[in-house]
Write a structure and sequence with these properties.
The complex is a heterodimer of chains A (156) and B (436). With 156 residues, chain A is of the alpha+beta class. Chain A has two helices and nine strands; from the N terminus they run H-H-E-E-E-E-E-E-E-E-E. Chain B has 15 helices and two strands. A two-stranded antiparallel ribbon of chain B has the order 1-2. The chains are: A alpha+beta (156), B mainly alpha (436).
Chain lengths: 156, 436
Amino acid sequence: MHIGNGAAREMRMFQRNIQQVLLLAFVAGLAALGAHLLWPASAEEAGRMKASKNGLYNVALRPEDGEPTVGPIHTWLVTLTAADGERVEDASITVDGGMPAHGHGLPTQPEMVDEIEPGIYRIDGMKFSMKGQWELRLAIEAAPGADTIAFHYVLD
Amino acid sequence: MQSKPPRAPIPSPSTMCWISRFLRKFPAGGRLALATIFALVLTACNGERLSEAEIERAAAFVLAALPPLPPDPTNGVADDPRAAVLGEKLFFDSGLSANGEVACATCHQPERGFQDGLRLGRGIGEAPRRTMALPGAAYGAWFFWDGRKDSQWSQALEPLETPAEHGMTRDRVARHVLDDYRDAYEALFGPAPDTDGWPENVSPLIPGKPMDEWWRTPAETRQAINRVFANTGKVLAAYQRRLKPVENRFDRYVAALTRGEAPAAEDRLSADELAGFRLFTGKARCDNCHSGPLFTDHFFHNTGVPVPDRPGVDYGRALAVLFLKEDEFSCIGRYSDAAPGECRELRFMAEDPALFEGAFKTPGLRGVADRAPFMHAGQLASLAEVVDHYVEAPDPFADIPDPDGTITPHGRHSAIRPLDLSEAEKRQLIAFLKLL
C-alpha cells in the first residue's frame, strides 16, 4: 500500500511528539531517582563516622538491634575515636534531642549505661514516639576534651 | 474480582493521528506541556480510591498491624487464663465497693466500649476526669489520663480506694476477695494469709482515721494486706489486658487493597471518608499523635483543650512524673514481679514536669464516634466541636501558673497549631473518624 508524502510527514510529526512525551517521562524519572539518592533511607545513614563539632572526635551512632520501631524502649551504640582514629575509652556521653519540625524533645531520658568494648558505648532508654525526622545530640567528655555532635535519624 | 487502577489506554493509530494533528496546532513547548498533561490525566490519582502510596500509609493503621500484646513482667499472672477468669468475675463484682453498688463495669461498661458516655466518671460520687475506654490499653506503658501508673494492675488498685469511685480500703478489698474467691485466689497465689488480727478500714491514701490506723499497723501486717491487694489488681489486669478493639470497615477496606483485590461492596469507603483519611494523614496532621493501629502514640501532649471551670488546675502528666517512682505498686516496688533491669520505662521516663504541663495521654480513636463527650474532662461534646478545636488551636495554659505557683513566660504550651480547614474538609474528617 502506497503511503503518500502527506501521510509520511504526518507520521514523522507524530513520532516527534511522542518522542517529546517520552523524553519528558525520562527526565521526570531521573529527577525522582535523584531525589531518592539525595535523601537516602535512614538505615544507610546510621553507622557512618562523622566528625564532632570542634573536631575532637569521630563518632558513629547506630541502633544496636536492627531498625527501631515506634514505641519500644531500645538501645543504641556509639563508636568513639579521636581525630587520629584511635578508640577513645572512659568517655562520658549524654544524650539529648527531639523532633525539630515538631518542636518537642525526646520522649524519654536516655543514658549511657556501659562501655561494652573499648570505645563502644551503649545508650539505653531510647524511644521514638512517632515516625519522622529525629535529631540526636551527644555531648562527649573524654581525655581529648569536651565536644558535641548531632545526628539526624529518619524513622519511616 | 480483580480491579486495577485506570491505566493509560494504548491509543489506536487513528487516535494517534488525531493527537498528532491536535498537537501540531501548538508550538513545540506547548505541545510538550499538553502531552504531559494528557499523560498525567490518564494515570491521575482516582479520587474514588487510594493510590499505591496511600495504601502503604494506611496499612500502618490497620488492626492486623497491631503487634503481639507486650508481656507485663511486673505481673506474674498476666497471661494466666485462670487469673483472667477470676479478674473478669471481680471486674463485674459490685461487692467491691463501700455501698455494694459500684463495680469496675459500672463505669467501664462493656456495651459502650468499656466507658460510660459521661463527662466525668460517676461511682459513689463524681470523679474528676472522664472514664477512659479500656480496649487496647495494655499496649501503652502508662495508665490514666496522666499516666501516673506504670502497670495495668497498679492502675486497677487506685479506684478501689478512691472515695468517689469504689470507696473501699485495701484491707476490705483483700477480705472480700478472700471471703468470696478463696479457692481461685489460692490456686494462683498459694495459701492466703490469716486475716485475724488485721485492722479494719485502713489505707495510707485516705486521710484521717484510715491513714493513722494504717501507720500504726505492724509492717508485716501492712505488707500482707498490700500483697493480697496487689494480687487483686493483677487478676483484674489479666482480664483487662485481653480487651482489644475489633476490626472495622477501614481495616477490611485497606486489607483488601493491600492484597491487590477490590474491597467487598459493603466495605467500600465513601468519597468523604477517603478525603477524610487524606486529611487525617496530611493537612490536618492528626497522625502526628494519633498514629499506629490504635491511633495513639501512647504519649502525653498539651493540646490546648478548654480548662474545666472549677477550682484547681489539672496539670496532667506534670504532677504524675513527680510521684511515679515513689509509688509502692510501681515496677520497682516490692509487689512487682519484674526482675531488676526490667523497669526501663520507669528508669528512663522523661521526668521534667515543665515538659508536661497540661499534658494528657493521646486517646486511641477506634470507636471514637461512640465515645462523646471528648477529652480528659469531657470538655468537647461532639466530634464537630473537636475538629473546630483543632482548627482554632487555643493555648489556655499560656496564662496558667506553674505547679509551684510561679508564673514564667513559657511561650506556647499547646503542641498543636491552627489548621485551615473548609466546612467540607471538616465534614470529611468527621466522616473518617466515624469509620474507625
